[in-house]
Amino acid sequence: MHVGLNLIFLVPGETGGMEVYARELIDALAAEAPGVRLTVFVNREAASSGELSWPRSIRSVTVPVDARSRLQWVLGEQTLLPRLAARERVDLLHSLASTAPVWGQMRRVVTVHDLIYAAYPEAHTRLRSLGMRALVPLAARSSQRVIAISQSTKLDLERLLGTPSEKIDVVPQGLGQSQRSTALPAETTRARFQLGDRQVALSLSAKRPHKNLLALLGALALIPIERRPLLVLPGYPTWHEAELRTRARELNVEADVRFLGWISDEELEGLWAVAAAFVYPSLYEGFGLPVLEAMARGVPVACSNASSLPEVAGDAALLFDPHSEAQIATALERLLDGGGEAQRLRDMGIKRAQAFTWQRTARLTLNSYASAIGLAGMPASWTTKL
Fold first, then answer.
1. Burial of 30 (C-beta count, 10 Å sphere; 0-12/13-18/19+)
2. Which pTM value belongs to this model?
3. Is the predicted pLDDT of residue 291 greater than 90, yes or no?
4. What does the alpha-carbon distance between residue 214 and residue 275 come to, in Å, rounded to a whole number?
5. Exposure string (b/e) for 216-248, b if CB count within 10 Å is 16 or more?
6. 89's torsion region: left (phi>0), alpha (psi -120 to 50) or beta?
7. Distance between CA atoms of 87 and 135, rounded to whole angstroms?
8. Of the residues 51, 217, 226, 266, which has the maximum number of CB atoms within 10 A of its CB?
């Protein structure tokens, strides 16, 4: 079988979690099914960047569009990609970023990461939200199979788009190498970010309203000053950061928060190493990979009980109502009080993270391909070289 992988969306270094998904899944597919021929369809930026590398067996085809232009991305996906896939004689086209061509003779699979454009439209620009409202339902309807990265996303597809349950395959993401770089020494990290000798609570997420960082600031203010940790918030700045900074001043916790912009991998690993707790109060997540990232590093986790996060966390994290600042504060204090609960969650978290592998993701994805082409399960021939 010849599988095409739609990566028109992927601009290296600018696509966040979906780039991680694409890179890890493609490597795992090549390893799990050497009998399947893979072709990746990339945009001009990706083709010229030199930052993408695939196993030598994978062919790369450039779709002549600038993916930083939303219009070019959509037109390329809907008009150029089906023709190029037909020219390459692709049997099945897998679109990895929630949108997909609505026509073509090949069978089609689309991965839908979340429906945040519908649940929290303020998370995107108005134009992007409108585009997703049109394109994601079309992709779900026109594809033979829809991959949801969590049970929560599957339920959203059924509830919000009316996608039939029997058409959806739940395929959780995996966790690759947890530590990608050598951590800065603890002394260097504490000095660079002015952490002093205080306990550090880390929250790693985009500064957008649905990440619920306003409630996290409110929870921090509820913790008595003598027990209050230093809250560290890495991540690129957004328009919402000004509101967060204003709220921190109003709550008189400005000195207890570090708003960091982009940081290097070495700096991030340094922060993971000094963190006493990881807190993730998000209102909506398609999956919630940062929770697994923390667990894999042995950092105890407290996270929201909303959307997909309980699926990822299981019983290896403290769960709280993200709308209750008091619950967030209580969970955070329980992790920081030096008792046995933090160690218990460290141990359980490491074990929990080990269950989420890209090998498993690839195998379940191959089963989805088999269903899309009308087979009962993944053929044995896919796992051996032809």
1. middle
2. 0.91
3. yes
4. 21
5. bbbbbbbbeeeebbbbbbbbeeeebbeebbebb
6. left
7. 24
8. 217
